[in-house]
Amino acid sequence: MTVVDLENVTFAYGEQPAVRDVSLTVAEGDFLGLIGPNGSGKTTLLQLMLGLRSPDSGSIELFGEPVSSFEDGERIGYVSQQATSGGGSMPVTVREVVTMGRFAHAGHGRLTNTDHAAVDDALETVGITDLADRQINALSGGQRQRAYIARALASEADLLALDEPTVGVDAESRDAFYQLLESLNADGITIILIEHDIGVVTDRASRIACINTDLYHHGDTESFVESDALTEAYGASGQVVHHHH
Ligand SMILES: Nc1ncnc2c1ncn2[C@@H]1O[C@H](COP(=O)(O)OP(=O)(O)OP(=O)(O)O)[C@@H](O)[C@H]1O
């Protein structure tokens, strides 16, 4: 089954396109690494895929339907850069954040036992049961990311989209975090991951999309490693791996 299908998608903020004529598909069960230099359109492309931005031209389907027909958050867990960087000062607990993932299921009624069980399961899966009653803003970066993943799991998302989720996370937590992603992927959740560390992407992802406004590569990780796409997309600057902060 095709989860995301982009055909000839172009998007510009002003005159200059951020994403140009990109066509690609993400299949159920894929672990897609989305890479490219700074400002190359990765976040924009991800937001287009999720229906958070409308393309200037081209078409986008999610789960075989036009992306515009999807309700906010339906079937999708999106962990944005802002979500994990600790922005927002809402005094909410981890349990409340994860419970928000159930609102689509609970409708306007009260949360059922099934909802509470789904929240407990999600907290358990990502290993933060002991943090459930802490304020979300009092967590470390890595713990906060797990909380947002748990929210996606509680919503029974089929697709998890993450935008540089390990910025500011120490190496050990980062490794554990990517192991969690791999095990979720093995359980059948489709993953799209923006990550600036190319070594991490080629180690973990089954497929790679490499962009710099234009799409330079889309295919399995092995064919990417053997191709010239990396040097072509990153240009002569030689800036292959960059670090934020
Ligand atoms: N809201 C916006 N308004 C205007 N221009 C924008 C906006 N967001 C992004 N851009 C521009 O569009 C281009 C693509 O940005 P985008 O954030 O998609 O790239 P990115 O690959 O995710 O970057 P990074 O790796 O630095 O996070 C950049 O040139 C950026 O300056």
TrEMBL record:
**What catalytic activity is recorded?**
an R-cob(III)alamin(out) + ATP + H2O = an R-cob(III)alamin(in) + ADP + phosphate + H(+)
**CDD domains membership:** ABC_Metallic_Cations
The organism's place on the tree of life at top rank = Archaea
* Molecular function terms, GO-annotated: ABC-type vitamin B12 transporter activity; ATP binding; ATP hydrolysis activity
Looking up InterPro entries in the UniProt record yields: AAA+_ATPase (IPR003593), ABC_transporter-like_ATP-bd (IPR003439), Metal_Ion_Import_ABC (IPR050153), P-loop_NTPase (IPR027417)
Residue ranges annotated for the ABC transporter domain, each copy included: 4-238
Q: Which UniProt keywords apply?
A: ATP-binding, Nucleotide-binding, Transport
Pfam families annotated for this entry?
Answer: ABC_tran (PF00005)
Family of the protein in this entry: Belongs to the ABC transporter superfamily.
Describe the protein's quaternary organization and the partners it interacts with: The complex is composed of two ATP-binding proteins (BtuD), two transmembrane proteins (BtuC) and a solute-binding protein (BtuF).
**Function of the molecule:** Required for corrinoid utilization. Probably part of the ABC transporter complex BtuCDF involved in cobalamin (vitamin B12) import. Probably responsible for energy coupling to the transport system.
The name this protein carries in UniProt is Cobalamin import ATP-binding protein BtuD
Q: Which organism is it from?
A: Natrinema pellirubrum (strain DSM 15624 / CIP 106293 / JCM 10476 / NCIMB 786 / 157)
